[in-house]
Fold this sequence. Notes:
Layout: E1 11-12, E2 22-29, H1 34-37, H2 43-53, E3 59-65, E4 69-77, H3 81-91, H4 103-114, E5 123-130, H5 139-159, E6 163-168, H6 175-184, E7 189-191, H7 198-210, E8 221-224, E9 228-236, E10 245-247, E11 253-254, E12 263-267, E13 271-277, E14 282-287, E15 294-299, E16 301-310, E17 317-326, E18 329-330, E19 341-347, E20 353-358, E21 360-361, E22 367-371, E23 377-386, E24 391-400, H8 432-473
Parallel strand pairs: 2-3, 2-5, 5-6, 6-7
Antiparallel strand pairs: 1-24, 3-4, 8-14, 9-13, 9-15, 10-11, 10-14, 12-13, 16-17, 17-18, 17-22, 19-20, 19-23, 21-22, 23-24
Helix pairs in contact: 2-3, 2-7, 4-5
Amino acid sequence: xxxxxxxxxxxxxxxxxxxxxxxxxxxxxxxxxxxxxxxxxxxxxxxxxxxxxxxxxxxxxxxxxxxxxxxxxxxxxxxxxxxxxxxxxxxxxxxxxxxxxxxxxxxxxxxxxxxxxxxxxxxxxxxxxxxxxxxxxxxxxxxxxxxxxxxxxxxxxxxxxxxxxxxxxxxxxxxxxxxxxxxxxxxxxxxxxxxxxxxxxxxxxxxxxxxxxxxxxxxxxxxxxxxxxxxxxxxxxxxxxxxxxxxxxxxxxxxxxxxxxxxxxxxxxxxxxxxxxxxxxxxxxxxxxxxxxxxxxxxxxxxxxxxxxxxxxxxxxxxxxxxxxxxxxxxxxxxxxxxxxxxxxxxxxxxxxxxxxxxxxxxxxxxxxxxxxxxxxxxxxxxxxxxxxxxxxxxxxxxxxxxxxxxxxxxxxxxxxxxxxxxxxxxxxxxxxxxxxxxxxxxxxxxxxxxxxxxxxxxxxxxxxxxxxxxxxx
Length: 474
C-alpha cells in the first residue's frame, strides 16, 4: 500500500532523490453546507498555499463538486507567472451554493484527469475536501454510488497509482469512506478540527507528496546559510488580528508592508506565507506567531534520505540513511560536515515525540540509524542536521501494522506410561471366612497324617505276618 511495502505492514516513502514531478487535482466541495463548516472559506487560501509551494515542473487542476464535478482549470504546468495566477484564481471560483455532495463524481473526475500521469513518469495525487456524506438526493442511489466507489473507483485509483489525500471538515462527514480511500491508495486522511487548521493540513500534504528541503525551527528561530537561494516561510497566526514580523540577521524587523523585489508576502486570516529570494545569511526569527511554523528552502546543498527495511527479525526494522548533496555531488568529508550533529525525531501514533542521536557513519559519508516501530498507525518523522552556521531538515512519514505475536512454543508435558492391566481382586472379609478356611486346612492335614500313620502300621503288620509264617514253615 506504500511505495515500499512489506508483508508485515511497515511502509515508508521512497528516497527523496527519486521524486518525480507532481500532478495534483485539488477537488473542493462546493455544497451549501460548506457555508456553515467553512464560513470564512479558509479552504481557498489553504489551497493557494499548496499551489504556491509547488515547483515549475509540477502541474495542478482545480475541481469543484456538488451534484456533479467540473474542472475550473485542467492540468496546467506551473512554470510561468500566468499559469500560477490562473490556478490561484481558480480557487476563488469555488462556491458554496451546491445542493448535494456527489463524492463519486468528484473521484471519477479526478481519475479522468490523472489516469495517464503515472505512464508519463509523474506522481498523481488527489486532494479531496468534503464536509458531508455521499448524497445525490436519493438514499438508495446514494448508497449504490457509495458502494461503487469501493467496488469500481478504488481499484482504478490503485491501478493508476493515484494517491488520495482526503480531508473531512466535520465529524458528520463520511470519515470511514474517506479514510478507506486514503489508506488504500497510500495517501493520508485528516479530520480538520476547524477551518483554521486547513492550511496546516495542506502543508503536511505538500511535505508528504514532495519531501521538500526544509530548515528546522527552534522557538521560531532558524539559520540561513549562503547556499540557500530561496526560502518560503509559513507563519501561523494566534488570531485573525495578529500581525507577523520577521527579524533579519541585521536586526531589522519587517512585515507585510515592507516592499522589496525579492520579497512576496501573502496575508490570510490564519497564516502568512513569505517568500524571500537570496535571503541574507545568518540568524532569522519569526515574531508574534503561533507555533508549528514551516521554512521550506531552495538550495544547492541538500539533505537526502533513503529508507530500507531489515526483515531478518520478526518485527521489521526501518534503516534510514542520510547524506548531503551539493550540485548533485556527494558532500562527504567536506568542511560542511565538520561539527555537525544529526538526530531522528519520531512522532508516535499516540502523539508522543522522542529524539535519537544519529552517530553511526559509513565510509561513504552516510549517517545511519535504525528504528523499530512498536505501535500500529501512522508515524511522523524528521531527520534534523545542525551546526552553528548550517541547518537542514527532512520530514517523512510511514505507516506500520504490527504483525500478530507469534504463538508461544509450549513443550508437551511427558505422559506417564499406563500400568499393565490386572484382574481386579475383590476385597473379602477376613474375619469369619478366613477363620473357617484355616480350620478346614487343619482338618485336612490331620486326616492326611492319620492316613499315613495307618498305612505305616498296615505295612509293618503285614511284614510281621509274613516273617512269622516263614519261620513257622521252616
